[in-house]
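Notes taken during the Thursday session

The instructor put the following on the board and asked us to keep it in front of us for the whole hour. The protein is Probable electron transfer flavoprotein subunit beta. We were told not to look anything up and to reason only from what is written here. First, the residues (259 in total):
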Amino acid sequence: MAGPADLRILVACKRVVDYAVKIRVNAAGTAVETNNLKHSMNPFDEIGAEQAILIKEAFAKSKKTVDVIAVSCGPAKAQETLRTALAMGADRAVHVETNDDLQPLAVAKVLKAIVEKEKPDIVILGKQAIDDDSNQTGQMLAGLLNWPQATFASKVELAEKAMTVTREVDGGIETIKTPLPAILTTDLRLNIPRYASLPNIMKAKKKPLEKIAIASLSIDVAPRIEILKVAEPAKRQGGKTVENVDELISKLKNEAKVL
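Then, after some discussion, the predicted structure tokens were revealed:
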């Protein structure tokens, strides 16, 4: 653990197939094919890393220190994702080494162990990962820690030992205030992540990156959900041209049966 800081932020950074890659189901029909595909940091987690760095920069103006710790669970290549977070501005990283695909509850348990070790004031996660779209880990972590949570944040303001979060809900905009420590999950409109500069990429190679074997945490990470089959969605059928509104209504009623 690093020396004392005025604020400590833990940021979860998941390695996923890059959002621009067109994915396909593997030959066995059991999962999405990931071999030989470009991977990157989950976009929502990237927003979380940016928010932690923005908080650090804001605190620096008032001579306060912020310790930003990036954490990821996964194989050796997950270190590439952590180095990206370090190049963006995180101070250090923790890699929980595992070759297993962890489900949200298992990830939440791992993060709980890291939180107990690092004792952060804020844990920031993306609201969901683009590979499984579960949207569960942040909420589960809050439950395991018995911490307050602010999900889907589109604006964050910090005060003394408290955090005010603006979030989008079905009925409009909601503003909540929560004491620290707390869990924060990020939405798309919170910020625009920065690009890591070449000098910062080089500096990131020298920043501390701690490796922890998942077995050493003595956590039950057995999957609770079994995937029986993965299939691609049915291909869209070609459209039809109609001559007038009456014909359109007739087809919607008699053929599509949606009216």
